[in-house]
Amino acid sequence: MADVPKYYIKGNLSERQIEADVASFFGWCTPPEVDSPFRLLDVDEQRTGADRLYDRATAIYMQFKKSAGLKSTSVVKPSIRKGRSPLEDIREFRARHDLEQDPTLFFQLREKAKNAHDLQHNILFEYERPPWSRAIYVAPLLLDKTAYHSALNSSTDRFLLDPFYYRIRHSIYQRHWISHFAAIPFLREHVSIPPHERVADHNHFYAYSVTGLDISWHSPAIIDREPNRLSDFAVSLFRTAATDKESMLPKHALADQISKISSNFGFQDERNNPDESPIEYLGRHGRWLREAHGIRQFILLGASQRLEDLRSEL
Questions:
Q1: What is the average pLDDT across 278-295?
Q2: How far is CA 285 from the centre of its chain?
Q3: Are the C-beta atoms of 212 and 262 separated by less than 8 Å?
Q4: Virtual CA dihedral for 172, 175, 179, 184, nearest 10 degrees?
Q5: Which DSSP letter does residue 296 get?
Q6: What is the pTM of this model?
Q7: Helix, strand, coil tally for the chain in percent (to 5)
Q8: Residue 70 to residue 218: CA distance in whole angstroms
């Protein structure tokens, strides 16, 4: 086994653990449907009659990645030998452009599976259709599983105030919903990155700071210098759904759109069963997508009348 470079910091989390913890946490922090304009459905959740209260929907797709770390060029000088690791290019690029790198966190795209229609990255990219379908990579900003576990558990009783809390007076922001998503420690400890272009192979890396800033892409390019944590994504998602009428589609329309995307990647089941509801179809699609391509589906449901009441007060 080759020696680990001095600049490399290995994490001890697993993608399966990250997926399970994030999915469980979203289920825990979703408000009860009885008093909320929204409900968040996971692909593994049992369907209930309460879904009938919600007539509009937005799809959310997440690919979970584990982070590794790179020490800055000021701590460990870059190699100048031929055939050096592409990770050296990441370190030099971030130093050259004054991006946070103490340390840098990163992940590589997944290699194409043997029988897959396309690279996982390109499949995720096709599901990124704002505002009615969002697709993101989610990776922890922590490398140690003990620290990660602590962040998960501290989130159950440590809510801080959202900066918008005092400026938006509707109950959706006051009843443990958007205001909490902005500062929940567990969600803040993940970066969220939408795939921004198609690729021909998996030899590409996203890199970012330990605070979820300064996202770079190698190739290379600077993608965004602003915060891109999972909490930021969640706040933006719910705020857009609360204020933009076009951000959520009727459930049947969303199912039709997702059917068009998924048919390009091997999901051949047409929406031709009159007894299957749009939510049942989306659930079946989500289970296939997770099994075939390792991408997790969530569905944000919205109640039109409650959303109209909300917008009238904003």
A1: 93
A2: 18
A3: no
A4: -140
A5: E
A6: 0.89
A7: 40, 20, 40
A8: 14
